[in-house]
Design goal:
Shape: globular
Structural class: alpha/beta
Helix content: 25-40%
Number of strands: 9
Strand content: 15-25%
Number of helices: 7
Radius of gyration: 18 Å
Length: 200
C-alpha cells in the first residue's frame, strides 16, 4: 500500500479554507486530522470526531512524550495535532488534511519534513477585505484585526511548498488544484524509491 501524504493547509480568515477542505474530504482517500484540546465539549460535539477532549495534565503528558506534532494555547485552552492519528492514517494510505495557522504549519514541517504545506491565498487583499465585510458577522475592529493577521500570514508564503489562489470562491477548482499537487508529489522522485536497472 502506498503511504499517504500529510497535507497542511493554511490561509487567512475569509479565504475559504474550510469549504475547500470539505471538497477534498469528499474523496475517499482523504481524511481530516482530528485535533486534541483541553477545552470542554460543546453541545453536539463528539469525542474523536470534533476533537479528542483531554485534561490539561494528559495534554502536557502528550507534549512531554512527543505525541503532539504541534500545539498552541488559545484563550486558556490547549489545541494540538496528535502524532499517532496522523501516522496511523498515513500508514493506511490516507492523505491526512490539517487546517492550521502558519506557526503550527512550520512546527509540523520541522517534525515531519515530508509534510506538504499548501497556502490558500486570496487574489488580493482588496478581495479578501470584500469577503470579510460581505460575511456581515464582524465589527470593524475585528475585520481590521483579521486583515492585519492576513498580511503577516501572506509574508510567510515562501515557507510553503505550494500556493493556490482561491479566486471568486471557486472552491471546487481550488480543491482540484490541490488534488493535482498531491498526485504530482506522490510521483516525484524525492518521494519514491526507484530501483535502477543494472547496466551490462
Amino acid at each position: 500500500m502506498n503511504k499517504g501524504l500529510l497535507i497542511v493547509i493554511s490561509g487567512p480568515a475569509g479565504v475559504g479554507k474550510g469549504t475547500v477542505i470539505k471538497k477534498l474530504l469528499e474523496k475517499e482517500d482523504y481524511v481530516y486530522s482530528v485535533s486534541v484540546t483541553t477545552r470542554k465539549p460543546r453541545p453536539g460535539e463528539a469525542d474523536g470526531v470534533s476533537y479528542y477532549f483531554v485534561g490539561k495534565e494528559e495534554f502536557q503528558k502528550k507534549i512531554n512524550t512527543g505525541e503532539m506534532l504541534e500545539y498552541a494555547e488559545y484563550v486558556g485552552n490547549f489545541y494540538g495535532t496528535p502524532r499517532s492519528f496522523v501516522t496511523r492514517m498515513l500508514d493506511q494510505g490516507k492523505n491526512v488534511v490539517l487546517e492550521i495557522d502558519t506557526a503550527g504549519a512550520l512546527q509540523i514541517k520541522r517534525q515531519m519534513p515530508d509534510a506538504l504545506l499548501v497556502f490558500i491565498s486570496p487574489p488580493s487583499m482588496e478581495d479578501l477585505e470584500q469577503r470579510l465585510r460581505g460575511r456581515g458577522t464582524e465589527d470593524e475592529a475585528s475585520i481590521e484585526k483579521r486583515l492585519d493577521a492576513a498580511k503577516k500570514e501572506l509574508a510567510l508564503i515562501s515557507k510553503y511548498d505550494y500556493v493556490v489562489i482561491n479566486d471568486d470562491n471557486e472552491w471546487e477548482k481550488t480543491a482540484n488544484e490541490i488534488e493535482s499537487i498531491v498526485s504530482a508529489e506522490k510521483h516525484s522522485v524525492k518521494r519514491r524509491t526507484i530501483t535502477k536497472p543494472e547496466l551490462k
